[in-house]
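Let us begin with a simple case.
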Amino acid sequence: MGYYQNNLSDFATGGIELQESKTLKAAILSNLSTNTIAGLPASSTAIVYATGGTYPGAASIETVTTPRGVTLGATFLVTTDGAGAVTSVTVVNQGPNVGVAAQTIEFSLASLNLAFGSTGITGALTATIAGGDLDRPSGIFNEKKPALYVGGTGDIKLTLASDSQPIVVKSIAASTILPFAVSRVYNLTSDTETTATEIIALL
């Protein structure tokens, strides 16, 4: 495979569905389904770590020092208005490709107090993910360089790990594993040269 473990095994230990829209967009979350927070510093911003909810891809304070890579979770920027109420929650680090509409992201009062250096915050803050909050993963691999599994016949535009320019690998048969390391897969809907489907990055 493209990424080797310390024991030089070529078995994949993780995968990313490159054509599934399960990655949080780096944008403002559209639905703060519970937003009764009061007492935050006025007109301020802070990085806040999610502490609950059904979305499994959020970073925690314990994982923030993990080297940036496909397993580092999503982080969020909370913005307040002049009265100290929350006006928006913006995705900063997009996290892994595991999001599904209707999942929730909760922020505890303790997490908000820690982020803003405050005490005495009241209320509750929960975001509910909408379909429009999700996109395909970028297809760019800065750390681990995956091999690819291709479920559906077609072509893939990609950049090999040691190259700077992309190539198009043509006429790939269904259910094929491409045993080379890639630094980028052109997997977005706008990447029309990629016609293969069910592409999974194997890590």
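The second case is a distinct protein. As before, the sequence precedes its structure tokens.
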Amino acid sequence: MKNQNFMNKAVAAMMAAAMGAALVACAAPAANAPAASSEPAAEAKAEEGGSEAAGGVIKIGGSGPLTGGAAVYGNAVKAAAELAVAEINAKGGQQYELDFEDDAHDPEKAVSAYGALKDWGMQISLATVTSAPGAAVAPMYQEDHIFAITPSGSSLAVIYQDPDNATGAYGNVFQMCFTDPNQGVASADYLAAHTDLGSKVAVIYKNDDNYSSGIFTKFKAEAEEKGLEIVYEGTFDDSNASDFSVQLTKAQSEGADIVYLPIYYDPASLILTQANQMGYAPTFFGVDGMDGILTLEGFDTSLAEGVYLLTPFSADAADDLTVNFVKNYQEKVGGEIPNQFAADAYDCIYAIAQAVDAAGVTADMSASDICDAITAQFTSMTFNGLTGENVTWSETGEVSKSPKAVVIKDGAYVGVED
């Protein structure tokens, strides 16, 4: 915050954050298509800092929670983005440098991180990992005309000035992840098509969280359209996010054999624990915010056995791209299986590289000129990556790709075949 102009932007961004959502992811192979190499990431020929070999280094910035309760998301994004940058730099073409700041899932810290990244010389951005910080800084990316693509900030407030009515798209802020409304619709469609999972649905959602309530609103509307029977709607907020006995008892008494959880993994872990304690064993069905529950410290992962999620990524997929990504990621981080946030971040870097190559972008171009060139590519290109094939983007920044169902078996995510 080195001048008044930046302070004015920060104030405006904070006002936008107050209205924003809470937390929270060409057909021919391009020259920088995601790597299917089985070579360990540690043996990459170039570090994520890049080199001057290709006529300069393009600087990519971003922020996310590297500390705090949502750190599992931020650290996964950072590690996967570093891996992708190292792989691309090793190919010897255009070189990239990554600076990823900790915003602790806090809008004010995200604004500070944005200022630090801009001072560093950021030319392209991964935006933020979570949605509330993303809503805070999105107006700043628009004002400074810097291209941004978030791996996992799924709220409409990240890409629209008026998220309630989905109007006023920023135009240069894109998403690799599904939007919240799309998750709700896709969840209802999946349950309607898979009646073997159950016929009576209870929903437990966080009503002071735009991420959770936004998914629920679209889920309910689509459920009614598809004839799903919702027998109970239970809510909670920050003041009572530790005891779910009332909601679970009511869901059980109403005969719900499916409990839909459009929430994050932390409260979901408590719900699974308390349901087990009371002998209630419906099919639990979650969204992308629950990806991370298997790595939650102190959680008995056996309680998540049989939980379903809709996600664009399944770490057990047998294709070469996924197999080698999982292998290299595990080598980088010490064995941890990558979640969908990691996969989305990896795809973000490769999609950026594809757009840069196709547009002929060079490191000596201004961030504004790069933004124009990359935006034109993203609204016209098709991308194939870990989280989807034939992925496209609209002019509003929303992504179009198909979700995959996974179920937790033996402490791992396993793809579900239709």
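The longest helix spans residues 71-90. The chain has eleven helices and 17 strands.
Keep these points in mind for the review questions at the end of the chapter.
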